[in-house]
Amino acid sequence: MHSMFEYARWVMRNDLLSKNIKNENDLSFESVIEVKDYIEKYLKFEHKGSLIIQSVIGQEFGWIVRIDPYWAKNNLKRIFNKDDEILWRAAWNGYIKFSPPYFEVFEILKEEYKRAISIIPNYLQTSSEDSPFIDKLVKHIMYFYWHGKIVLEDNLFINFWEIANDKIRKNAISFIGLSLWHLKEKASRNIIQRLKKLWVWRAKKIQERIQGDEDYQYSLETGSFGWWFCSKQFFNDEDSEWVFNSLLNAIKASDKIDDIREVVEVLAEVANENEGIVLKCLDEILRNSRDIVTLLIVQDNVYKILDSTLKSENEGIQKEAKNLINYLRTEGFDEKFKTLLK
Questions:
Q1: SS3 127
Q2: Which of 193, 104, 212 has its CA nearest to residue 152?
Q3: Among 58, 161, 71, which residue's Cα sits nearest to residue 112?
């Protein structure tokens, strides 16, 4: 089946090169009628024993939409067969595992995305949160939100956050943070505002949930804000106060912030200009972390921050820095930090 799609692509490439077709917008299944006829024959009879074929068609659905969206829409219900769970999963799993997130495809498959979200608990019975099917679904959803193709008010998006467990929500927030961190340029203002809106909304929803459900798990999700902070995408006149306060609240709400080493390194870089809030964040990180290995990894940057805040003109900040130094000395770091008090 894969070879059939490769053959179709080969024919179309040659049609473009030979000028039989002037541009990609003129491509359609009509130029490979034999491939189209075979697929339509298969879909018509719904050979339930051929789950591999169903999966391959799912894998190729993004390409099909690109070259013949009209055919894709007309055959959508036969490819993603909601009346047969096994057939539907074969096609969906093939699609979500191998296809990048395309806007045009999302518009056609929006109902399938909703269905996939609704059965996340079923997937978790046999797979982990990091399985390709769940992981790729999370990345697709967050990619579409990043680009404004999904908004907070969409039922699809609301249902995702309601159904996803703490680990899946962490993966979603981490995907955004790591995407920001890897950007080589500044994100657009629209994207920054959209992402801030997401985090504010999630923080509010978490507070609402824990008031009615003390067993609600959220520590992994809030801890993943560390990557947002480390991206430095919010370090500007309009967003700096927000990102520092959000980091502080995330640290307080989490068992462990991601990634502590990077977070403390960035805090050290900006300590001179933000000494008060930096010291508060550091204090929460160090008192919450009981991992001696983590403390050893970050101790040099901790030293830089404390050295800087001890020189503050604000006596309150100096006092807080001394209190934190004394705490670290009681935790076994006497030799490293006692020199700061001389």
A1: coil
A2: 193
A3: 58
pLDDT tens digits for range 223-270: 999 999 999 999 999 999 999 999 999 999 998 888 899 999 999 999
The contacts of residue 211 (CB under 8 Å, 6+ apart) are: none
What secondary structure letter does DSSP report for 31?
G
d(CA 294, CA 260): 8
* Residues 270 and 308: beta-carbon distance below 8 Å: no
Alpha-carbon separation of residue 331 from 18, 261, 296, 336, 342 (angstroms):
75, 19, 11, 11, 19
Q: Which residues contact 198 (CB under 8 A, 6 or more apart)?
A: 145, 152, 176
Rounded CA gap, 268 and 273, in Å?
Answer: 10
pTM above 0.85, yes or no: yes
- Angle subtended at Cα 129 by Cα 158 and Cα 58, rounded to the nearest 5 degrees: 80
Do residues 82 and 90 touch, judged by C-beta distance below 8 A?
no
CA pair distance 88, 165, nearest whole angstrom: 24
Q: 10 Å Cβ neighbour count for 25?
A: 8
Strand spans (E) along the chain: none
Q: How is 77-93 classified by DSSP, letter by letter?
A: HHHS-TT-HHHHHHHHH
Q: How many C-beta neighbours within 10 Å does residue 85 have?
A: 11
11, HSE (Cβ side, Cα atoms, 13 Å): 17
Which of helix, strand or coil describes residue 5?
helix
For 126, phi then psi, to 5°, come to -125, -10
H or E element that contains 322: helix 315-328
Is-contact 199 225, C-beta < 8 A? yes
> pLDDT tens digits, residue range 298-338?
889 999 999 999 999 999 999 999 999 999 888 887 777 88
Asked if 135 contacts 175 with a C-beta cutoff of 8 angstroms, the reply is no
